[in-house]
Amino acid sequence: MGARLDAAAAGTANYVDERTSIGGFVKFFARKLFPDHWSFMLGEIALYSFVVLLLSGVFLTAFFVPSMTIVTYDGPLATMQGVEMSEAFASTLHMSFEVPGGLLMRQIHHWSALLFTAAIVTHMARVFFTGAFRKPRELNWLVGFTLMILSLAAGFSGYSLPDDVLSGNGLRIIEGVFRSIPIVGEYASYWVFGGEFPGEILIPRLFTMHILLVPGLILVLIALHLFLVFLHKHTQYPGGGRTHKNVVGLPLFPVYTAKAGGFFFVVFGIVALVAAVFTINPVWNYGPYDPSPVSAGTQPDWYILFVDGALRLMPGWLFDIIPMEWELWGYTLSLNILIPAVILPGLFFGFVALYPFIEAWATGDRGEKHVLDRPRNAPVRTGIGVATITFYVILVMEGSNDIIANLFHLSLNDLTYFFRIGIFVLPALAFWITRRLCFGLQRKDRELVLHGKETGRIVRHEHGEYQEVHEPLTDDERWILVSYEDIAPLEIEPEFNDRGVRRKGYRWDRFKQQLSRIYFEKRISPVTPEELAEAQHSHH
């Protein structure tokens, strides 16, 4: 029986290969090497959670009614009996309490959405801190960044579909953000909501966006992202035998395929377990959307919470002197909404998207990079990353200031004043501390390379001197600690030429030189072979 199956499989494969010439592609694809490191699983978690999103979303689509038509609830939930609500909210209750497994699928969908965005953000952080965005992967960084933005759009549009009080208040905030944009904001709001908020067409539009437009774009970008990974070959961490011209790892088939397949079920199982144990978004506790009630102690999902925090952080008056809302030529300019909800996110996300190009331009380092940096060997970049995370965390905490104040019995106003100062001070402090720590770790690496590891064993020499015995590093351990580039700050031509004429473009070159010095003027150079040989000779 087994021989017949093998013969049938071989015959089928031969038939397909003779008509499609796919054998060469499969052979190339299966032999593709992937480095074996736990941090590379972050991208896999994002991919697998998106697959879970699609599977659970297909189930939910069969029962959800994307309509804002008002109906009277007559279902099994006693607290909602006789309450007027939209068909969208009523179908959500029907799905949760009357469809077998409906509530579990809703929660799997929501938890996997949170995991999808969290995995993308964490994966991008890994890429940032290790320098995996450098040439030739700048375009792939932009693809990943766009995937992150699309995950936010998918999460917010799905979060708003049940048409409950929380999601309705979130949409009301978005409507206010639209209207804060000068001149075009009001027209944009009318176009999105189909008239005055909330209108009657928003839920159907969000539904189309959530199940068709955004997932389609995400699928296209995932395919493009994986194609670019194959095209450029995978990055790898420094180690023995690893260079910018090779890849040390495991083949895609059968080793990596088996591991990845098993990992998918691990991710699916953990999401299902969390969804079965922890309740999320119980819309029946909030009720259908009504503009009159606004609950205290409520926040959007974590990936949108920073916008809420920025809105809470922005004062209505600057130093109690300058108002943040102006009436100009018949238009109301609401800077207290425009700055935190439009300008600040635009600058934040713009900086994240363009950082690979900013660093390449500032440092002048444009060579191809396939071996990753250890974060300690790029102190300025690591400091910038930690400062950015600190900035984001402050906004998230301010978005939860009422919960923090209630939990720790603090003054809400004092918290807000603290975060208003901290948003400027703490990221700068985080940058300085991180940079100092990186330099300290680099100095420790030099000490290890030159003198070896401390063993804790003390010996006494014949002449009476006591000395600790150090164990020399292995070649692989030493390679990791010394294999990084020693890049000097950018050198430029003098300001004046031999004839005393000021050189054109000097000021621009001087600006680039200052940026280069920020990155490289203070640096710890790796141990050279000469230094290592001298240290080993002195030990002997």
From TrEMBL:
Looking up InterPro entries in the UniProt record yields:
Cyt_b/b6_C, Cyt_b/b6_N, Cytb/b6-like_sf, Di-haem_cyt_TM
Give its E.C. classification number: 7.1.1.8
Primary residence: membrane
Where it sits in the cell: the answer is:
Cell membrane
What domain of life does the native source organism fall in? Bacteria
Q: Which SUPFAM superfamilies match?
A: Transmembrane di-heme cytochromes
The chain positions of domain Cytochrome b/b6 C-terminal region profile read 239-440
Q: Which PROSITE patterns match?
A: CYTB_CTER, CYTB_NTER
Q: Which GO terms describe its biological process?
A: respiratory electron transport chain
* Matches recorded under Pfam families: Cytochrom_B_N_2
Recall the GO molecular function terms of this protein's record. metal ion binding; oxidoreductase activity; quinol-cytochrome-c reductase activity
Transmembrane stretches, start-end: 45-65, 108-129, 141-161, 207-231, 252-280, 337-358, 378-397, 417-434
Give the UniProt entry's GO cellular component terms. Answer: plasma membrane
Needed cofactors, names only, are:
heme
The way it spans or sits in the membrane comes to:
Multi-pass membrane protein
- Domain (Cytochrome b/b6 N-terminal region profile): residue spans on this chain: 12-238
Keyword line: Cell membrane, Electron transport, Heme, Iron, Membrane, Metal-binding, Respiratory chain, Translocase, Transmembrane, Transmembrane helix, Transport
Q: Is Transmembrane helix one of the keywords UniProt gives this record?
A: yes
Is Iron given among the entry's keywords?
Answer: yes
User: What reaction gets catalysed by this protein?
Assistant: a quinol + 2 Fe(III)-[cytochrome c](out) = a quinone + 2 Fe(II)-[cytochrome c](out) + 2 H(+)(out)
This protein is called what? Cytochrome bc1 complex cytochrome b subunit
